Amino acid sequence: MARKMLQFTRLDPCQPAKRPAAERRGDFREISRAFEPERAGDQASRCEQCGIPFCQIRCPLGNNIPDWLMLSATGRMEEAYQMAASTNSFPEICGRICPQDRLCEGHCVLEQSKHGGVTIGAIEKHITETAFAEGWVEPVVPPRELAASVGIVGGGPGGLAAAEALRRIGYQVTVYDRHDRMGGLLIYGIPGFKLEKNVVERRTKLLAQGGVTLVSGTEIGRDLSFADLRERHDAVLIATGVYRARGLDCEGAKLAGVHAALDYLIRSNRADLGDQGLDPALDAKGKNVVVIGGGDTAMDCVRTAIRQGARSVKCLYRRDRANMPGSQREVAHAEEEGVEFVWMAAPEAVLGETKVTAVRAHRMHLGMPDSSGRRSPQVIEGSGFDLPADMVISALGFEPEDVPALFGEPRLKTTRWGTLTVDDRLMTSLDGVFAAGDIVRGASLVVWAIKDGRDAAAAIDSHIKAKPRDKTKDKAKPKPKAAQ
Ligand SMILES: Cc1cc2nc3c(=O)[nH]c(=O)nc-3n(C[C@H](O)[C@H](O)[C@H](O)COP(=O)(O)OP(=O)(O)OC[C@H]3O[C@@H](n4cnc5c(N)ncnc54)[C@H](O)[C@@H]3O)c2cc1C
Ligand code: SF4
After folding, report:
1. In Å, what is the CA distance from 158 to each residue of 76, 239, 350?
2. Which residues in 238-252 are b (16+ Cβ under 10 Å) and which e?
3. Residue 213 and residue 480 in contact, taking contact as beta carbons nearer than 8 Å
4. At what angle do helices 77-87 and 65-73 cross, to 10 degrees?
5. I want to staple 407 with a disulfide (CB 3.0 to 4.6 A). Which of 101, 220, 226, 385 is the partner?
6. Is 121 in the pocket of ligand 2 (CB under 6 A)?
């Protein structure tokens, strides 16, 4: 159906319906229902078709949002998909999990003018799901095969986006990952209620069908040396993410029952994927759970605990709601599902003899802004209180691992935060070794990892084409340990 644009004067913004909280507490399926096609088209027709589209400017990928909204509104769905896919390797993933309120939708002119922004993320998901249903999403077919090969360390969104882009040009691409499945945090970090596992697996299957070699269960630096990897490939991309958890720094932090957020989420995601023999200590069923932290990882932990059947779930955060780093949408979902937020409170100690029994916390107030402009939380003396707990989950963020040490390559330069140093082509201090995603930016977003992966692929292509080829590399075929 062809629609006129600028329908924001007539139509209010509307997101796809959410499943009722009581229903979604019982499973790990996505909480939003699919957009009905008519509704998606109507919502797309609200777009104002701005001359200077701030949504596009604030999308890290520079997606041509007004154009694919217009194509969707006028029923030209295949063209809408081609346009969405031309700038984004995984539009259905971004449509689901980008914090749109901080990116495209938050900067839509209609949002700024109080008409309510266009529901861009949900429409991006709808366009791509339509494309999958119609069979328009196909494995990559390169125009010609090139002899040169690229080795990618890390099968998260950064590594996979680069793999897709390089394979499209015709390179022989191998992705190595230490986990038994590809996807990085898309598969083992982000829970199914935000991003169902089959959505990620569908993409890795397409990559394999397109000729990308996926080698899981292989840790570079342990199962294959970094030097051998460089020997094997014409260029290397490091997309290893950031995994060193910032620990809880208080008395009792080592008691049984205190867990790191990612250990907890990986175990839950494995259960969701059907894995057996998982550690029962990491199951929140019947427990009083306290999650410490206020970012997206903390939100994923509290909502996972609810679904596992915890007796109570509390989130302890030292600032207030307005100053938390996590998405406000996620907080709202968590509250609907029964999570209790304890704002302006920080842990003083974890109590218990051998096993956690409670968290002792104190109240905070927000003082003067620090150098980053954020008001720093300060303890209110004598305000201590205890929260009963059988399980405490620390979700205080992540830092990079020591990649030069893990790879046995001290010439790999890092910043003072431990992220890899790269130049404007995303090349590290080593010739022909590039880096992308969280290991360059620090803990960030999927959409930025995709952007970096695509940019790194373009830089690797230029780098390889600018050099005379070392033909000895042709002999070095990767030996998949467990290709998916
Ligand atoms: C719990 C959680 C929830 C999140 N939710 C969101 C969200 O809703 N929206 C959003 O945009 N972002 C979210 N993020 C952030 C997002 O997941 C990351 O920014 C993104 O995944 C980074 O992509 P990446 O490819 O750089 O790294 P990763 O996704 O971390 O992938 C890196 C991969 O490298 C592998 N690897 C590491 N070292 C080696 C080695 N030596 N050898 C072989 N393989 C190795 C790892 O196993 C991993 O698979 C979330 C993060 C977490 C932790
Ligand atoms: S990729 Fe993310 S920021 Fe860009 S249009 Fe899609 S949802 Fe918005």
Report:
1. 30, 6, 37
2. bbbbbbebeebebeb
3. yes
4. 160
5. 226
6. yes
- Stated length of the chain: 484
- Predicted confidence at residue 478, as pLDDT, reads 54
**In this structure, is the dihedral angle defined by the CA atoms of residues 195, 198, 203 and 208, taken in order, positive or negative?**
positive
Residue with tokens 């599902």: 337
| 3-class secondary-structure state, position 229 | helix
Q: Extract the tokens encoding 163.
A: 């793999």
Task: Give the number of the atom of ligand 2 that is nearest the alpha carbon of residue 65.
Answer: 5
Structure tokens at 183: 């996807």
Measure 395 CA to ligand 1 centroid, in angstroms.
15
Ligand 2 pocket, residue 103 CB under 6 Å: yes
User: Using CB atoms within 10 A of its CB, is residue 222 exposed (0-12), middle (13-18) or buried (19+)?
Assistant: exposed
Q: Please tell me the distance from the alpha carbon of residue 203 to that of residue 198, in angstroms, as a whole number.
A: 9
Q: How many CB atoms lie within 10 A of CB 257?
A: 19
Express each pLDDT in 289-332 by its tens digit: 999 999 999 999 999 999 999 999 999 999 999 888 888 889 99
Ligand 2 pocket residue status of 389, Cβ below 6 Å:
no
Residue 177: pLDDT over 60: yes
Task: Pick the range with the lowest mean pLDDT from 145-149, 247-251, 280-284, 367-371.
Answer: 367-371
Q: Which helix (H) or strand (E) segment is 208 a member of?
A: helix 197-209
pLDDT at 483 over 50: no
Question: What is the CB < 6 Å shell around ligand 1?
Answer: 97-98, 153-159, 176-179, 184-185, 189-190, 194, 219-221, 239-241, 265, 296-297, 300, 406, 437-438, 444-447, 449
Task: Please give the structure tokens belonging to residue 204.
Answer: 């890795």
Ligand 1 atom at minimum distance from 407 CA = 41
pLDDT score for 15: 92
State how far the Cα of 311 lies from the Cα of 286, in Å rounded to an integer: 5
Give the number of whichever ligand sits closest to the CA of residue 117: 2
- Cα gap 457→91, rounded to integer Å: 18
What's the mean per-residue pLDDT of the chain? 94
| Neighbour tally for 255: CB within 10 Å | 17
Q: Which residue has the higher pLDDT, 421 or 366?
A: 421
Distances (CA, A) of 305 to 1, 250, 256: 44, 23, 17
Q: For residue 373, what are the CA distances in angstroms to 363, 368, 377?
A: 22, 9, 12
d(CA 123, CA 65): 10
